[in-house]
Amino acid sequence: MIMQKPSQADIKLIKTYARQVARDLGARGRITMRVGTRYNIDNDPDLERTNMNILLVTNDPDWDDTDLYDTDEFSWFTRGFETTPDGRALFDFYLYDDEGLVCNMQAEFDVEGLVAIHADLEKNIWVRG
């Protein structure tokens, strides 16, 4: 198991884009972000049962063989996470305002840190230069 912790710069970028995306979609009030924990619905024995790193529970690039298990506080993500053997990770964040779920946002990591941020149906709203 390889563990990685997001840098403060990575955390700040994710939070900045989360606020921007949520506001662009009409969010009001305080924005709360939670990290999704997913599971593989096909129960592939070579994959983990549940994990916040989607790449550890599926080999499908569209995650069609996964479903949401639960969401956890954003701080679970900031404390560190497991990566694939080659150091990659993908997270699905749930953005809420005072009225409920606004949208989802994804963040991709490699051994060097944050690679890209995606928002709902918009890929690469931020990409490491």
Give the tags:
7-stranded antiparallel beta sheet; two-stranded antiparallel ribbon
What does it look like?
By secondary structure, the protein is α+β, with helices and mostly antiparallel strands. It has one domain (2-127). Helices cover 17% and strands 45% of the residues. It contains two helices and nine strands. It has helices at 8-24, 74-78, and strands at residues 2-4, 32-40, 50-51, 66-73, 81-83, 89-97, 100-110, 113-119, 122-127. The strands form two sheets. Strands 2, 3, 4, 6, 7, 8 and 9 form a seven-stranded antiparallel sheet that branches. A two-stranded antiparallel sheet has the order 1-5. A hairpin with a 2-residue loop joins strand 6 and strand 7 (100-110). It is globular, with a radius of gyration of 14 Å. The model has no long low-confidence stretch (mean pLDDT 94).
Structure summarized in a few sentences:
The strands form 2 sheets. Strands 2, 3, 4, 6, 7, 8 and 9 form a 7-stranded antiparallel beta sheet that branches.
Number of domains: 1
Order of helices and strands: EHEEEHEEEEE
* Coarse morphology: globular
Quaternary assembly: single chain
Number of strands: 9
Characterize the largest beta sheet: strand count, sense, and whether it forms a barrel. 7 strands, antiparallel
Helical/strand content category: alpha+beta
Q: Estimate the strand proportion.
A: 35-45%
> Which residue ranges are poorly predicted, with pLDDT under 50 across at least 5 consecutive positions?
none
Individual helix count: 2
Q: Let me know the average pLDDT.
A: 94
Percentage of residues assigned to helices: 10-25%
How far apart the termini lie comes to 28 Å
Task: Calculate Rg over CA atoms.
Answer: 14 Å
